Amino acid sequence: MGTLLPTSEEVPEIDYQEGTSSSEQLDAGALFVLKSRGSWLHCGYHLTTSIVAPSLLSLPYALSLMGWFPGVLCLILAALVTFYSYNLLSLVLEHHAQLGRRQLRFRVMAEDILGPAWGRYFVGPIQFGVCYGSVISCILLGGQSLKFIYLLSTPEGSIQLYGFVSIFGILMLVLAQIPSFHSLRHISLVSLVLALAYSACTTAGSVHIGNSKNAPPKDYSIDGIMQNRVFGAFNAISIIATTYGNGIIPEIQATIAPPVKGKMFKGLCICYAVIASTYFSVGVSGYWSFGNQAQPTILSNFMGDGQPLLPTWFLLLTNLFTLMQVTAISLIYLQPTNEVFEKWFADPKMDQFSTRNVIPRLISRSLSVIIATFLAAMLPFFGDIMALFGAFGCIPLDFILPMVLYNVTFKPSKKGLMFWGNTSIAVASTLLAAVGAVASVRQIVLDARTYSLFADV
């Protein structure tokens, strides 16, 4: 113990991270991507970027599937449970660091506590799928934002969605070469400000339209027969779980310079202060203004019969903020995949910027972005697939595993509130994940009838 991860860009001067073993000291993924050099403020920026994303623009739609009381209650409960579960994960990570083994990755954490099979066959694949799925979604959303901006300036424009997805993919191809997670700290700070900016714009736009003479009729009833309402409610739960999802808490905590004790909690406080000021303002104002007519992204409601309901400059600014933040989120969720590639292909005994390490990094990261861009262009209904990721990925990683890992690590008394509270949350979340997965698959099947590959939507 008592050693640090890189404090210099030069490999010979590396002091390895507190509590790591000699085998991990030679791990290029940890050395080059997960550099433990950040402060709790940097941690807060990364957490906010990884959670507060443009997916929050779907919250009015989620509320429309559940109604006022269940919807707002679900928003509050999801915030409380995820804040609690992320703190549990942080405490488990701190505990193992103090015992002499600092866990830098979610899959390593699961392997150490639950056994090798859990990390290799469950947590690792799920986390990789969630992170890479988030990158695909961000590239798709970036392309949609570019197309929206294009159509505002050129209403009769003929460029299709896949063209804009490709343009955004080229931008990501360049930015993906940023070397480490720690290198993104200033980008994450800008992302935090952008999230506040487009959330404020969206809230103001919803309130303005809701009070205008062109305001749509406010109908808060839930459409459809009982079967559709039930499936819609569980689909909404999956959407909300996805908006609060993270899945990379250990990797973010790995960027903090030792000692790590208490720093993650401060970072989470920053993140959830932003969540409180964005999620509820956007969700409530959007649902209040548009009721059960709220679209899967509330920005779509700002257009009526193809005509903007707000000044064009305001819509351009809002979409520009969204576009810029999507770029930062893509970079954050590329880091776990970058770490895997660096571990496989880089040589930790050589300098990070040596030809030996730069060429494999350039190839692996470029291929990763190219494939993600192709999938985003090919599957314009990928938002529905992300609801499935929320059920299969975000709920297990963010609502279930933290409770299990804490109970296994600290072994709280089975007669105490902590044990049964954690167990209850894990069991309830498991049931919600199962039903949410069925609802998400059903929605994908329904939407697949109207969408085609490379569709211009």
Topology:
Blueprint: H1 22-25, H2 28-33, H3 40-51, H4 59-66, H5 68-98, H6 106-114, H7 116-153, H8 161-175, H9 185-211, H10 226-244, H11 249-253, H12 263-290, E1 303-304, E2 307-308, H13 312-345, H14 355-378, H15 382-410, H16 417-448
Helix pairs in contact: 3-9, 3-12, 4-5, 4-10, 4-12, 5-10, 5-12, 5-15, 6-7, 7-8, 7-13, 7-14, 7-15, 8-14, 9-12, 9-13, 10-15, 10-16, 13-14, 15-16
**For the CA atoms, what is the radius of gyration?**
22 Å
Main pleated-sheet profile: 2 strands, antiparallel
Estimated helix fraction? over 70%
How many domains is the backbone divided into? Answer: 1
Beta-strand residue fraction: under 5%
User: What series of H and E elements makes up the topology?
Assistant: HHHHHHHHHHHHEEHHHH
Gross geometry = globular
The CATH homologous superfamily is called Amino acid/polyamine transporter I
**Strand arrangement, major sheet:** 1-2
> What is the structural class?
mainly alpha
Oligomer: single chain
Poorly predicted segments? 1-24
CATH architecture: Up-down Bundle
Number of helices in the DSSP assignment: 16
CATH topology: Amino acid/polyamine transporter I
The CATH class designation is: Mainly Alpha
How many runs of DSSP E, i.e. beta strands?
A: 2
Q: Give the N-to-C terminal Cα separation.
A: 55 Å
Average of per-residue pLDDT values: 86
